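As a next step, we paired sequence with structure tokens, yielding the entry below.
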Amino acid sequence: MTYDEVPLILRQAIVAAEDKRFFTHSGVDYRALPRVVQKMAVRSLAAWWKGGQGLRLLLPQGVRRSRSNSSAATS
């Protein structure tokens, strides 16, 4: 099926669902860019935080205990 064979209403619906201003910008939607960057930063931070928690949970119990005992002794 070629582009021209796809009904116009279907093409418009797909574009509207993906990018409402598709036909008004030159390929980069500068109005949406700050929102996209913010979302990417939040997701990246969340993934980093979740990854850090996972590493903490993977530490053997003995290592965690020895660390907590040594920090209690130095306090």
